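Why does this matter for the project? Reviewers at the last site visit asked to see concrete outputs rather than summary tables. In response, this paragraph embeds two records directly. Each consists of the residue sequence and, immediately after it, the corresponding structure tokens. Nothing has been edited or filtered.
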Amino acid sequence: MVEAGEEKEGSGHFCGAVNNIMSVSNQRMESSLVHEILSHLGLANKTAAWGTLGTLRPYLSFNVDKDVQRLLEAIAGQGVDQGTIVNVLTNRNGEQRQLIARAFQERTQQDLLKSLQAALSGSLEKVVVALLKPAAQYDAHELRAALKDLSSAEDVGVEILSTRSPPQLQECLTVYKRDFQVDIEDDMRSETSGLLRDLLLTLAKGTRESYSGIKDYNLAEQDVQTLHEPGETGTGATWITIFTQRNTEHLNRVFDEYQRHNGQEIEEGIRTRFHGNAQTALLTLASVIRNTPLYFAEKLHQALQGAEPNYQVLTRILISRSETDLLSIRAEFKKKFGKSLYSSLQEAMRGDCRSALLALCRAEDI
């Protein structure tokens, strides 16, 4: 384990769930070992098997008054204690961070977010802002930025709209309207066009069907034929309907059958039929559908390339997935790139935010 600080108890939280599978006496088992055990048992990607595959759990010894005091001392001294700020905020889940913010406001009559912004700067300030914003608000602001930057709409926009649960998405859209005084659909219509606009509008409805456990082979065959046919039948509209309405288990079966029938992956079919931002958006969605943790692993790897890491991408993914499936993302990263996500972050990142993002990743994967 490469964790530091007396409050890093994330790995200990995993053991309770593993006890349902096998007798584990060591209550501080490393998360990488837990994931390896679950992998052998075929449970590594089944969230329902033990609650969550996030790296960040509710802090068991949570004391909101103590945390408020620690943060006050961290920003009120002669020098800002960045270590304490990072230690507190990266060891509390989103709900606990919001309780801290409210208690800080009640005690000091000051906004915690603004107080920390005044005390910090640069990349660490941005990470702390992202940690303190409610998840729905953070997503809403990321979507707004993506829609205003056309090069991001087909990437970040599709990512957020296709990887949040229906309740999360609904809350995000509500916050979007509250903060920007406009429905996100109106921004989509004014900032995008064509197939990309139609795809985003459909994803924003959050109407993808859930998997019922019943495999409809006839429908899968029909979808393959529809996606393959040219002309009026196989239009962009039909691709959007299939890609946004069918459950992911069904779509993975469709992708397999598409390759068997046509001798090419669905991604090659997208590249042949579509161009520009429509092609990028559909390729992004196909990647999310195939394997969401792998999609995020590839995005993280891409963000680490070049002379300077893309801290906005790293921050968005590590925070948004820290309570859901970051363990699975870490496993996919190690499997595909032959190196752990923790080591890759450690080597590529510089600056004040390094410790915060490493804390969210949590641990080395041996």
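We now turn to the second protein, recorded in exactly the same manner.
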Amino acid sequence: MFPHHREREQPIFSARAHVFQIDPATKRNWIPASKHAVTVSFFYDANRNVYRIISVGGTKAIINCTVTPSMTFTKTSQKFGQWADSRANTVYGLGFATEQQLYQFSDKFKEVKDAARLAREKSQDKELANTALSIAAPQYSQDVSDELQSPPVMCVNGPEDKLFRSQSADITLSAEKERIKKMLSEGSICEMNLDAELFTLQDSNTKLVAALHEANANVEQWKKQLTAYQGEMGRLREQVSDLEAHGGHGPSDLLKDELTQSLEELEALLKAKDEEIHILQSKKVEYHEMEHDRDEAIHRLRETEMRNAELERRIQNSEQNLNNSLEDRDHMDSEIQRGIEILDIKIFDLNDLRQSLVKLIDK
């Protein structure tokens, strides 16, 4: 049975990388698992206390690896690292754009591996405690449980005659259950992909907001400097005009050259500041585009959650229908058993009557 409510796994770290898998034939060559860089995320399941590495391309899970304490992430070059997954019987390789991204992923892998080790130790302690309690329990409770769980064998006039049981309803419900389970799995993969994308967008959004605030502060400062430079340029131009009007020579020519040079430097600085302001304005446009992408990702995530809720509702209905069918079948079995018992009594009575008639005839 599926749980009526499942708390979503939460992404705790994401990075962009090219994903590779080892060639199962040669165990040497790498086979690309993605055509381009994809998001590789660490997820944490609070209900099961499990960490997983997940990467989704479209609707297909490229990486679905549960982190265990025995795993080790090895950096084989400045931008490439790998680890082995014994459960999937493969080796994953990740190629990053920068060396810094590789070190960040390696540090997070080690941190998650240590957390998985602590979680396993706690789980083992709990299992030992449960084992001790089960050993102390009375032995006959297991025998009673076995008797209750073993189904009764009903025979009519011999062990080879079995009751007819309708299996078509079970097969139909099982097929419907598997189909809904598959749909829910696909919805979960899409939901994880959107979670990772949303996590990445939120991280980028935070960085852009900080950069935008810093840029706005710099723009205000540069505007004040620009106003001061413009006033200084105006004053220098007036001095140059006054010098040209008086038409002096000697030291005035040297002063004129210095003022002209200062004016050119201020004009170059003013041009550089204008370019920086233009660049900041373009970054502001990119920030708005990122906000739009984030809103779209949130909208798609909500739609996926609604679809998952609908799938869970349909699963609950299917489970209820299956339980009702099982109850009806049990009720039918009990009615058949009661009819068999009545039939056995009638047959026994008829057998007694036949024996009485034979004895009467013999007399």
